[in-house]
Amino acid sequence: MLLLIDAGNTRVKWALAPDGRGGGRALGQWVASGMVEHAQVRELASGWQGHKVTHALVSNVAGQAMREALEAVLGLQPVPLEWFASVPGRAGVRNGYRNPGQLGCDRFASAIGAHALFPGEALLVATCGTATTVDALTADGLFLGGMILPGLGLMASSLARNTAQLPQVAEHLDVSEPFADHTDAAIVSGCLAAQAGAIDRALAAHGRKHGARRCILSGGAARLIAPHLASTPTIVDNLVLVGLHQVAMDT
User: Fold this and answer.
1) Segment holding 67, helix H or strand E
2) What is the DSSP track for 149-185?
3) pLDDT digit string (tens) for 73-85?
4) Which CATH number fits domain 2-83: 3.40.630.30, 1.10.630.10, 3.30.420.40, 3.10.310.40?
5) 37 burial via Cβ count (<10 Å: 0-12, 13-18, 19+)
6) What is the pLDDT of residues 42-94, one digit of tens each?
7) Which residues are catalytic?
């Protein structure tokens, strides 16, 4: 089995896919998958016990301490391990960053996943997590660059105390009206408007220059933001893992 790991800023997600070129399953169709908070990272291996892992491909944007923790976990069942990194080109996507290695490996993996799922389309890829990233891809697979802004929780925490869990707050509030009549809803409404406005503006700009019409939305806050966009997005869960799967099949 091929083990795919996405160590993000808040959580670590993993998936198992059949090993070997072609994979035997469509992208995003896993044999097993799971997720843990950073504090539970040493419990990861229990999720894939009983499966013979032959290779691991890991995207890590959570720093050196997380890398060391993952190395310890993966060392319990020694397998060949590849740390996915941003390079000038891989799996059908060319990296247009001025310094290709500076691009976050999670953003590069997401771009690869998006291009693999929708080949031949100019795409906007918005990942709504701890940070929100909004990236542009041309139809022939050139990663043009993107935007980085605070995610919903970070935006809210800059305005008021105890609002870092904004996605949970937002689930219980009606923000269908743009102008709220109490503070919690006003914060939610403002942050959602800022997120949606950035994505809408980016899609319009990418559409004018490269004909992009599809916005792919991923990340924990994707379903909260989606209803506030001017056009209907395509929601793809675990896009980083999808990209890693494509990289493994393309190797």
Assistant:
1) helix 64-74
2) EE-HHHHHHTTSTT-TTHHHHHHTS---SSS-SSHHH
3) 988 778 889 999 9
4) 3.30.420.40
5) exposed
6) 888 888 888 888 999 999 999 999 999 999 998 877 888 999 999 999 999 99
7) 106
